[in-house]
Specification:
The chain has 413 residues and is an alpha+beta fold. It is built from 13 helices and nine strands. It starts with 12 loop residues before the first helix and ends with a helix.
Length: 413
Amino acid sequence: MSAEGAPPAGADLDVCARVEELADTWRARAARAERERTLPKETVEELLGSGLLSLAAPTCHGGPGGGWPTLAEAARRAARACPSTGWTIGVVGGHAALAGRLSPEAAGLLFASGARQVFCTATAPVDGRITRVPGGFEVDGRWRFCSAVDHANWIVLNGWYEPASTPERVLVPLRADQVRVEDGWHVSGMSATGSKDIGVDAVFVAESLVTPFDACFGERWRSADYLGAVPYLHYMNSVVIGPLMGCAEGAFDHYVASLRPRGGGRAKALDQPLVQDGLAESAAELACARHLYDAVCGTLHSAGVGRRALTPQEGAVIGRDRAYLARLCVRAVQRLVQLTGTAAHHEASDLARFWRDLQMMAAHRDVSRPLNFPAYAAQVIESADTATADTATADPGAPRRDDSLPAVARAHR
């Protein structure tokens, strides 16, 4: 399964090879990482030393300025061995591009020690407050879900500041020694990401270091690298599909390995039609998920290379495809778990660990069906209304083609 299909267009093959060289080492540490609820220091040192956490760092700050498919594919391949390591490469590694998109003063400060650092984010305030004060902002309170914070050099907080006549969302960078790590990360899956809470005690941050959310994620065409130039939100929200896809593929590989007899000879599974049927259906679902993965990679990379913003239709399709990819992966692996029976739920089972991790990834808001499907449907319906209004005033004798809809919508009308 892992060997099926080529890397997506735009992925750096040398980076892929770098990941494969380290994959067995991460696979051997995966169970330990889950028990310790954080990545081992050795793994983080390997990620930093190999440049896998700085793939998205801008060239102006010493990074390679890589494209989005390279980041996603590196995360995918790592996740086949250890889903939490894949998550750290893709999601946490993607924050290097975010750090480069902060205000010039903030970006210069964060990259003063070079690109090979761990940039974490905290986007879910519990009681966190960002308050405007003379000369800047004061940050106080708690934020949740700060992946890899045990190894962080910098944490970028996300929140709305007060008081403000018009509320504004901002990004505030803090050094790791300015926050307090609070261990609330006791979860059933993705334990090794160490996505713990952080507390901040009345820290002042100068105004020049605080970046409005829209300024960070909007157009910045002067950047030499497209991840620092094009509107970034769809790129950041889509990176989860790399580790998610790899996690499902890793689960499939473990299941197939469990069917092979240890002493050689003929596999018993060859005499079990139910197993054969389930295996083939799960493989087909993962093949379909890979087509969606390639499509998302292709759209994002094409827009990035072309230095253009995604159209609303493209953004809606990407959201739909992320959510459906997650659904296909979950269904495929759930079937394998059911075929395995009780053994698949043993705490030490590799398949059980992948299943736990996959369910946690699939719960992420960026692959949420309730969030992404309605947005896609609204875009299709609104586009159809616009097309109808346009054709009402057109030459009735002219041939009609509804180009305002995405191709998939036109195909189903």
